[in-house]
Amino acid sequence: MSTISVIEPATEEVMAEVSEAGAEDVDAAVSRAKAAFPAWRAMGPADRSKLLHALADALTDKHEELSVLEARNAGKPIANARGEIGMVAECFRYYAGGVERLTGKTIPVAGGVDMTFREPMGVIGMITPWNFPLVIASWKVAPALAAANTIVLKPAALTPLTAIELEKIALDAGLPEGVLNVVPGPGSVCGQRLVEHPDVAKIAFTGSTEVGAGIARGAAGTIKRVTLELGGKSANVVFADADIEQAARSAPFAVFDNSGQDCCARSRIMVERPALDDFLAALKETVEAMKVGDPLDETTVMGPLISAGHRETVASFVPDDAPVAIRGSAPGGRGYWFPPTVLSPVSNDDRAAREEIFGPVAAVIPFEGEDEAVRLANDTIYGLSGSIWTRDGAKALRMARAIDTGVLSINSNSSVRVSTPFGGFKQSGMGRELGPDAMEHYTEVKNVYYATEGS
Ligand code: NAP
Ligand code: MG
Predict the structure, then answer these.
(1) Tally of structural domains, the chain
(2) Helix, strand, or coil (residue 264)
(3) 202 and 275 in a common domain
(4) Is residue 67 part of a domain?
(5) Which of 1, 3, 32 is nearest to 184 (CA)?
(6) 3-state DSSP call for residue 153?
(7) Which residue's CA lies nearest to atom 16 of ligand 1?
């Protein structure tokens, strides 16, 4: 049997060997999920809700263990990993509370009573990336289970460890066998098999726009439902009338958190010209003070990149003649380190402003006035997140309405809450996760008409 050697990016050492799933293991997992579906669907909502609460409790009990595993495997600072695992438990709790609120409608019609039902789809295939392994899995698994589906989850081969734990924890918490199945294996084999499998009703995917497009094509063959959470190149728009100090102090964390391996990274920092010098001065101080190093050190704010190959890709965005304005520190020696780097000034037409770098490289793009801000912010194939910094409330709201993006913050760089919808415009994806409506993405609407006045 072949195995996956799971690497710790901060040390380049193998931290675990995991048996690698192949296409036949995906088929077996789909069969188990299909067999488990009728009983899972028939379970009373209150009982299903209790099981999801039990799973949330179990995740809370294992909080530290899972946080350390995620920090080591994904190379993320332990403080961030703790936040993420906390969100995983919160996500299960939120959708545990949703089970009994997934309701249909009654619709006035002539001659009878008309009602809609939100029916589960059956077996859902899930394919997730390596940057926020368990968090992104939970955004899919929790609402899909709450809506009474069963699941085959394929985590990224680079970071399968917490998903494997999740399967065990779910069984221990009382979830019936076959309801949640994890198949760690390569995307080109296991992911593709899920996409093509005739017994899989839907694919929920998070990853790159390129792979997402292939999944949408593959899913078309069996008319599978698809939701896609894809890449981003989001704008952090700072007007001269903003609190420049605050905007500049927080901007690095909106790009360099998770070493920039964040679909929400606000990697185009757009600054109104009159504020540019002050902004860059405060930015420099903050970036140079960032502690990059051992993910398990409590004071670390940025870890390594995920792999050597990815580091090469990131480095290609900083050629020798790049306009490097600020460069932070990074350890030498083993580990896939890359210093936080700010390029300035950058034109929105430059490669560093057009492509998702997915690493700690930010581009500062000067602009003049509101119209140019809207034009530049929207001049991208992506539309996932973004921020607007200004003290003028009406301008902030005009901008918020004009920018084509799924998630925006005003005077803040936050993107994600369990209770609010998350997803992208344009090539950043389709469908929404989280928030009160996410369960609906794991259901089909059924309309039933009952004739009461004869047929
Ligand atoms: P990726 O290369 O697209 O991979 C994502 C997942 O798809 C992995 O599990 C991968 O498996 C699998 N996969 C690869 N090829 C496949 C194929 N032909 N068929 C089916 N599945 C396949 O993305 P990544 O490099 O892991 O993550 C980075 C990307 O994810 C970035 O573009 C980022 O913006 C995006 N992302 C988006 C969001 C969001 O919510 N919008 C959140 C996080 C990340 P293996 O890797 O195991 O081969
Ligand atoms: Mg990839």
Answers:
(1) 2
(2) coil
(3) no
(4) yes
(5) 3
(6) strand
(7) 187
Strands 324-327 and 341-343: antiparallel
In order along its 455 residues, the chain shows pLDDT tens digits of 799 999 999 999 999 999 999 999 999 999 999 999 999 999 999 999 999 999 999 999 999 999 999 999 999 999 999 999 999 999 999 999 999 999 999 999 999 999 999 999 999 999 999 999 999 999 999 999 999 999 999 999 999 999 999 999 999 999 999 999 999 999 999 999 999 999 999 999 999 999 999 999 999 999 999 999 999 999 999 999 999 999 999 999 999 999 999 999 999 999 999 999 999 999 999 999 999 999 999 999 999 999 999 999 999 999 999 999 999 999 999 999 999 999 999 999 999 999 999 999 999 999 999 999 999 999 999 999 999 999 999 999 999 999 999 999 999 999 899 999 999 999 999 999 999 999 999 999 999 999 999 87
Name the strands in the sheet holding 443-451, side by side, starting at the edge strand that comes first in the sequence.
106-107, 112-120, 443-451
The ligand 1 site (C-beta within 6 Å) comprises: 127-132, 136, 154, 156-157, 186-188, 191-192, 195, 206-208, 211, 214-215, 229-232, 263, 356, 358, 384, 424, 429
- 297 shares its domain with 405: yes
Co-location of 392 and 432 in the same domain: no
- Residue 140: which of 157, 130, 152 has the closest Cα? 152
Let me know whether 241 and 225 are in one domain. Answer: no
Domain match, 315 and 193 both: no
**Residue 415 is assigned to a structural domain of this protein:** no
Q: What is the DSSP string of 8-41?
A: ETTTTEEEEEEEPP-HHHHHHHHHHHHHHHHHHH
In this structure, is residue 418 part of a structural domain?
A: no
> Is 151:145 a contact under the CB 8 Å cutoff?
yes
Regarding whether 245 and 179 lie in a shared domain, the answer is no
CA of 358 to the centre of ligand 1 (A): 12
Domain hosting 253: range is 235-410
Residue 164 domain-assigned? yes
Output the six-digit token pair for 416.
């994600």
